[in-house]
Amino acid sequence: MSTVQAFIVFFLLLACLALVVWLFLRGWSPEQLPLWAGLIWGTITVMTLAPKFLPASIRWHENVSIVQVIFGVAVLVLSIKCLIMLIRHGSTLSDTQRSAAWLGVVPLIIGVMMAALFFWMAGAFNVRK
Predict the structure, then answer these.
(1) Residue-range definition of the domain harbouring residue 99
(2) What is the C-alpha separation between 32 and 66, in angstroms, rounded?
(3) DSSP string for 16-69
């Protein structure tokens, strides 16, 4: 890895940290739940579709996967934020806000289920005989 690439990776990681802190600290009102749910699903869409539209010379470069991890961490933080807001304001949310909160929590639930499945499969195939 060249020095320029190392600086780009370092800058991307610092930008990720700033983005995650900014997203977590900003907008804790229940009225913003539809915004956060839309941002979560828009980020997931960009994360899955954008690399397919990149040129082949960029597509397989390690910086694209770092950007995808940054987006994934942002989705994780926003999903945790939606879960906290759903728990904190659950009884006072309108139907739109409650459905947006559940839409925001779905990626977190899917991620937890995938991690549990991974560890179950790793344990199942690592049985000593």
Answers:
(1) 3-124
(2) 28
(3) HHHHHHHHHHS--SGGGHHHHHHHHHHHHHHHHHHHHHS-HHHHTSHHHHHHHH
116 within some domain? yes
User: 């600290």: which residue's tokens?
Assistant: 25
Q: Is the dihedral of CA 89, 25, 77, 48 positive or negative?
A: positive
SS3 106: helix
Q: Total domain count for the chain?
A: 1
User: What pLDDT digit, counting tens, does each position of 12-37 carry?
Assistant: 778 878 878 887 888 788 888 888 88
Evaluate whether residue 129 is within a structural domain: no
First-to-last alpha carbon distance for the chain, in angstroms, is 43
**What is the DSSP secondary structure assignment for residue 126, as one 8-state letter?**
T
User: Is 46 part of any domain?
Assistant: yes
Residue 45 reports pLDDT greater than 90: no
